[in-house]
Design goal:
heterodimer, A: 11 helices, B: D-Maltodextrin-Binding Protein, domain 2, D-Maltodextrin-Binding Protein, domain 2, 2 domains, four-stranded mixed sheet, 16 strands, globular, transport (chain A), transmembrane (chain A), Sugar ABC transporter permease (chain A), cell membrane (chain A), BP-dep_ABC_trans_perm (chain A)
Amino acid sequence: MLGKPSRTGRVLQYLALAGYLIFLGFPLVWLLSTAFKPPRELVQLHPSLIPSSPTLQNFVQAFTEQELGRAAWNSLQVSLASAVLTVLVAMPASYALARFKSKLGTVALGWVLLSQLFPFVLLIIPIFLVLRQAGLANSHAGLVLIYVVWALPFALWMLQGFVRNIPRELEEAASVDGAGRLQVLRRVVFPLLAPGLVATALFSFISAWNEFFFALVLIKTPELQTLPVALARFVGIEGTARLGPLAAGSLLATLPSLIFFAFMQRRLSSGSLAGAVKG
Amino acid sequence: MIPRRFRRLAAAAAVAVVGLGALAACGDGGESEATAGPVKLRFLSLAWQKESLQANKDLVAKWNSEHPDIQVEYVQGDWNSVHDQLLTSFEGGDAPDIVHYEASAIGEFSKQGYLADLSGLIPADLKGQIDQGVWDTATFDGKVTGVPFLLESQVVIANKKLLDAAGVTVPAADGGWTWDEFQANAQKLTKPGQFGVAWALKSPTNRVLNLALNYDGKFFYTDGGKTEVKIGDAEKEVPKRIHDMIYTAKTASPEALGMSGADTLPGFFGGKYAMLPGSVSLRQQMVEQAPAGFEWVTLPPVKGLSSKQAANPQTLSISEDSKHKEQAAQFLAYFLNPTNMAALAKGDWLVPTGKQANEELVKLTKGEQGWDVAADSAADLTVAPFQMADGYPEWKTKYATPALQQYFANKITLDQLASQLVDGGKQVLR
């Protein structure tokens, strides 16, 4: 049995945790600082974390020049639709993969993971041609379709792991109590699967929100372009960039993911299974 | 009765499906094109600086208002992903009508037949405005597939107060220093805590090959249809001089080696470096980011046997698949008339290729903020053999950049550098 950590051990633990938090959080803090700095403060020999003359000019430029508001709205629609559709498709498929043992299931799971090995640069031209034939090139629907297909293999693999963690005994107990298959799914499996569904939705949302290449290639009309494509326009040749507006736009681009995560994280806790099965 | 949880699920599914339908409606709904109405041209532009972006958008808006029968849609791309974007568009048969890119990159697309030959489409007055040496950069297999319109020369930006304090005189716009004078003046400007020069060599290949023309260093030699990399004294001269400044004379900062041009600015503004060899477009950062009271000056390009530098102009091309090539060419002729070309160059802080545009720009700016030097440098920009070599991009990435980085980090000798460059050429140009 592990003993209670000593006072020194506890202090070291907290120091390590603080160091890790700084490591993770510093880029975001620096982004925040850069977004409020005027151009001259961005090239100081000894840069400061806190802007000496904070300005909103970078935000104004980012929004007026690139219509980031419209791009963010486009991204939000595409990402939400991708997240919902991915969850709707992955939920029954992952249950079937996890619960109904067959050779086909193993092959299917292997195949979906194998599909992840293909670099999308290799696939982009065929995908573009297919979507064009279907009248879905240059549309958000085409983009959503690609994002769902792209997210599904990992979502399936992840979600079927969550399904496996739900003890079969719980489903069997519900059946013994007279619940039908649908009732078992609805009253036992889905509630316990909620953390997995949330994780899948988050994964799908964030993948779609951050995705750049498909959006760049498939969307031609400026009014339909998404946020990552709009942000890339602040970057110039050979690593040069308009740092102020880029930081301001990037800061705003991180907010929806953070809000979505904060809103959903309560659902991610999987403690509801504690004590469900004895012995 | 349908359970409440299932109803929610069904509602979510319905929302997703309806949403997808609505999103589909946001698209262009396929490739159908109206038979009546104005001709529509799609223009993929890579302008990204604030002033340049505005200049581009203003010109397109003006054209659209004056030409109701030919409407141009302005689409902004970005330099880092434009190659993949264009490749996919060309392969997919959905390329923009007008494409903004650069001479060294359009060769590949030209040879694959994606870009139209503009020889018969460009008006004579536009042709006459641009030097043949610059036209040559956008001519592939006898076809002119791009109109070169903006040039980037290598100049030297200097801290005026430090020059004055060291007794270094600023040369006239048409009288640049020789490399020996540049080194001697860098020596005068070097003292504890201050280097005469900061060579930003994070991406050294283009810079070295551009400047190598000062000593007639060509690197790529073609004989009997076969191209190979050769390194003689002419090719070695510029890298050797830069290396000597860093390690022998110690007038150039070794810490700047891993930096891009923009990375050196804090040190330059902080008085750590007195001179920055770099692109004419660096002047924009000077204007926007220099601290109040900071005095800077643009020095003309450094001279070797000549002031020649490789020109890699930005270009405007027309897609071979465009259904409206003549209208696109009309737009180009308007977009690149002397006044408009001057406005575009001013927005990007680059040098216009057109002679009259160059004159107008100097007049407009009164030659201030280095525009006199920039304009004067245009005459020395010409096509370099490496720009025409098919394997150059691969040679640059796989062999030249790592080898030059090692040489400038003092990890290999000049002879080893030469041998690595030649060997790389053999691999790529087989």
